[in-house]
Amino acid sequence: MNENNNQLALSSEALSAEAGVLGSMLIDEKAVGPMMLALTEEDFLSPEGKRVFQVIRDRYNRGEAVDPLLVAADLGDAYRPRIAEYIDWTFTSANADAYAQTLKRTSRLYRLRQLGEQLNRAADEEACRALIDRGNLLLCERPGVRRLTMEQGFREFFIRHDPKKPPEYFKWRFGGLDEEVHVAGGDMVVIGGYPSAGKTAFALQIAFAGGELPELPKDLNLLHTSRIGRVFTLIIRGNPAEIKTRMAVHSPILMEALPLTLEEIFIYELGGEDYAVRDIVL
What we know:
Blueprint: H1 2-27, H2 32-38, H3 47-61, H4 68-75, H5 80-89, H6 96-120, H7 125-138, H8 150-160, H9 177-180, E1 201-207, E2 222-228, E3 231-237, H10 240-247, E4 254-259, H11 262-270
Antiparallel strand pairs: 1-3, 1-4, 2-3
Helix pairs in contact: 1-3, 1-5, 1-6, 6-7
């Protein structure tokens, strides 16, 4: 009986924290983002609280306003009294973080105690192992961590390392790099080099009296072209002095060679159209 009273008190504390979290988001839209990072729908014990959280989360993810009237409209008339209760319960959103911490702690402990009761009634070792796995998942608190049981982890590990499925590596578009440097999605690439090492590309800003770009030499190694007003920015691979001499025959009214950073050279060498390269404004 004493254990039941403890569980009831814990449930009551969790439900109060639920009301504080949801009320904070409904009266102050600035509280929504931090609550989305701190909590998941699994932290809510009541079906009503869970559903309200889901609707607020969906509106937030779509970039739509989180307003009590709009949230109530999404949920339907049956939820309007509940929305009003959450707002009445919450005087200020200043304590939203404390509400979230209380909700996470009490909800987790409530569910762990439920698992303990099930563990006490488990029929065999396999059932105990499954319940312990669920308890370990509940104790994983790091945000953004994808939680898996040991069985799921091993299964996905072997799927990822299936020898019949070749890994998909990033295509560098540099001669030899595709065979020598294997980088997969999510890997970190550090670009470095000695000063001026390999910097054969530069930006040429150029403008002409007629306002249009003349026909360029066909052998010009042009990587990217952009235009702002009458000024063209040409990303060219080659010797700046030699290329300026060749372009001078077109009588430009403005011509200036500008260096590129190593990062910019890397991006333009890869191909601007596929890598969301921004036009350079110099």
